[in-house]
């Protein structure tokens, strides 16, 4: 990859109902809804509509007695979590009458390598990509796989050579379980105990991470995609197109008459499917499949709620910054299937910037190219419910449409 080391960012780590993610579409399952601009939301500027205007340079927090303190945008966007504050009952002098509130135990420090990220902003033809690899496996779909979507999706699981290994590449602590309607935090600490930082050097992981700050997930705010962000999107598609899952996806869709014969045209089709903007919440050009599924969005109509946000990498990074508060796993439908540190299909509850996601499901440790491939395949050839096997897991891949776009896609444990 091009690019010198520009620095490291230290990050502080300190049953779902059928169609649950119709929290994304519950009151208006297929209506267009809207979202917002990323750096402002991840920075915690979520209390005032006005704070999300492009001219807002500061976040204001009111102190006892009416005083205000302001945080510049550079403080919020530094990647450092801001401790929660509350007035001291004794009016002590420390922190001018404020004290720090720490809900969770102290988190370990982790590093995310961002060496290459600046180079990703260059035009795609000026970037360096991972070489095409001969994986030593047959990427041609069999007749059986072409006749059975479950077999095809399971083949994609087998082809996910970038999938992480629990206990070797990362460790999670599921904490205690709860029912979706139950309140209270059942997790003493973070979901992720540790993660091998070298995984962020892997090309598809690194390029995926570089996309996550391109969005404002509050629904109802139009996105403005810069030329550099568009180049990051195209470069991500180019990178994953060199992997086994996407090559298999292409051959499968080509055989079905869905993909164009040209691989370059196929890549353009993928970029359009995942990154073209559409509307949510009545606002046009305010959402995309990628943002909703992988980054997450915060509903503004009625009571605030998190929708989407089904990607484990985004969860890890936001938890590391103190913006995600893991609150325990949701009891599985099948007794005896309690999750542990080896489980890679989890149904959990968490808060994101203080907003609750009561039920969320995610595949832990899978690669970005694998998730793109399975959701794309389900969108083109599946239905709203796709009961399949992924390795050891019985899964229902939910896939909701917004017109000719992916409205949402996520796994649910069967």
How do the helices and strands line up, and which of them pair or pack?
Layout: E1 8-13, H1 38-42, E2 58-62, E3 68-72, H2 73-76, E4 84-87, E5 98-101, E6 108-113, H3 143-147, H4 149-159, E7 170-172, E8 177-178, E9 192-195, H5 203-211, H6 227-240, H7 244-255, H8 263-275, E10 278-280, E11 283-287, H9 289-295, E12 297-299, E13 305-307, H10 312-320, E14 324-330, E15 345-352, E16 355-363, H11 368-381, E17 387-390, E18 393-402, E19 405-413
Parallel strand pairs: 8-14
Antiparallel strand pairs: 1-6, 2-3, 4-5, 7-9, 10-11, 12-13, 14-15, 15-16, 17-18, 18-19
Q: What kind of oligomer do you see? A: single chain
Low-confidence stretches: 1-103
**Rg for CA atoms:** 21 Å
Number of strands: 19
Largest sheet: 4 strands, mixed
N/C terminus separation = 41 Å
């Amino acid at each position: 990859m091009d690019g010198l080391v520009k620095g490291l960012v230290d990050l502080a780590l300190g049953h779902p109902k059928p169609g649950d993610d119709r929290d994304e579409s519950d009151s208006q399952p297929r209506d267009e809804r809207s979202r917002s601009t990323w750096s402002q939301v991840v920075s915690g500027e979520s209390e005032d509509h006005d704070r999300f205007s492009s001219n807002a340079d500061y976040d204001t927090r009111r102190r006892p007695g009416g005083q205000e303190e302001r945080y510049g945008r550079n403080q919020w966007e530094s990647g450092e979590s801001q401790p929660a504050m509350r007035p001291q009952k004794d009016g002590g002098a420390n922190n001018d009458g404020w004290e720090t509130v720490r809900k969770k135990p102290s988190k370990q420090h982790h590093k995310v390598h961002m060496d290459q990220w600046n180079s990703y902003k260059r035009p795609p033809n000026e970037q360096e990509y991972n070489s095409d690899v001969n994986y030593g496996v047959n990427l041609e779909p069999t007749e059986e796989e072409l006749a059975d979507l479950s077999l095809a999706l399971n083949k994609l699981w087998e082809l996910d050579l970038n999938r992480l290994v629990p206990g070797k590449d990362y460790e999670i602590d599921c904490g205690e379980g709860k029912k979706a309607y139950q309140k209270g935090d059942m997790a003493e600490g973070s979901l992720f105990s540790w993660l091998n930082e070298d995984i962020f050097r892997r090309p598809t992981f690194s390029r995926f991470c570089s996309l996550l700050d391109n969005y404002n997930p509050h629904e109802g705010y139009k996105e403005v995609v810069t030329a550099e962000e568009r180049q990051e999107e195209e470069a991500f598609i180019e990178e994953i197109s060199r992997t086994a899952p996407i090559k298999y996806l292409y051959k499968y869709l080509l055989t079905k008459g869905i993909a164009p014969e040209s691989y370059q045209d196929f890549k353009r089709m993928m970029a359009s499917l995942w990154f073209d903007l559409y509307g949510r919440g009545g606002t046009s050009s305010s959402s995309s499949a990628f943002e909703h599924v992988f980054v997450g969005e915060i509903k503004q109509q009625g009571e605030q709620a998190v929708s989407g946000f089904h990607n484990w990498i985004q969860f890890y990074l936001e938890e590391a910054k103190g913006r995600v508060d893991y609150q325990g796993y949701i009891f599985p439908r099948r007794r005896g299937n309690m999750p542990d540190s080896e489980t890679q299909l989890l149904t959990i509850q968490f808060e994101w910037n203080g907003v609750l996601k009561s039920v969320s499901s995610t595949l832990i440790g899978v690669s970005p190219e694998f998730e793109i491939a399975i959701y794309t395949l389900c969108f083109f050839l599946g239905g709203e419910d796709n009961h399949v096997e992924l390795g050891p897991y019985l899964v229902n891949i939910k896939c909701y449409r917004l017109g000719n776009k992916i409205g949402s896609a996520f796994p649910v444990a069967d």
